[in-house]
TrEMBL record:
It comes from the Eukaryota. This is Receptor L domain protein. Residues 14-105 form the Receptor L-domain domain. InterPro entries: Rcpt_L-dom, Rcpt_L-dom_sf, SPS2_domain. The keyword Protein biosynthesis does not apply. Pfam families: Recep_L_domain. Keywords: Receptor.
């Protein structure tokens, strides 16, 4: 693994382990493809992202709690990638709030609910979810 400090992560091409607290938008999409581990807290706040695919298979080793903060992402629809994120932290490991458009089909929703129960978090799925899925598929 190639280590880098959080403040250097955006400028280093070969960094696979980031040490320190990271703000999601400070790292490019290309860099997220290389990062395997964060030792610190990952903040995904006030972004325009629609999914969490960039953090698929990420390991987060929380040096403080929460290790993962996902809040105020007004366009966030798809959080399925969370299922593959390995979070090692004291409780509460995750803070999830004010992401009002989260939407999944029944099967994905059940899998996510099981994952959320294991990780002691709750997510409110939008009440218009079925209509939204139908609209996006048309």
């Amino acid at each position: 693994m190639n280590d880098c400090l959080a403040k250097e992560a955006g400028a280093m091409d070969n960094c696979t382990r980031v040490i320190g607290d990271v703000k999601y938008e400070e790292i490019s999409p290309e860099m997220w493809q290389r990062v395997e581990t964060i030792e610190g807290t990952l903040y995904i706040e006030n972004t325009d992202i629609e999914n969490l695919d960039a953090i698929n298979k990420l390991t987060i080793i929380g040096l403080s709690t929460p290790a993962l903060v996902i809040s105020n992402n007004k366009k966030l629809l798809d959080i399925a990638a969370l299922i593959s994120v390995d979070i090692r932290s004291e409780e509460p490991a995750i803070k999830f709030e004010d992401n009002t458009l989260v939407c999944h089909n029944i099967v994905e929703r059940q899998t996510l609910k099981e994952w959320m129960a294991r990780n002691r978090i709750s997510v409110k799925f939008t009440g218009h979810c079925c209509k939204l899925i139908r609209f996006l598929n048309d």
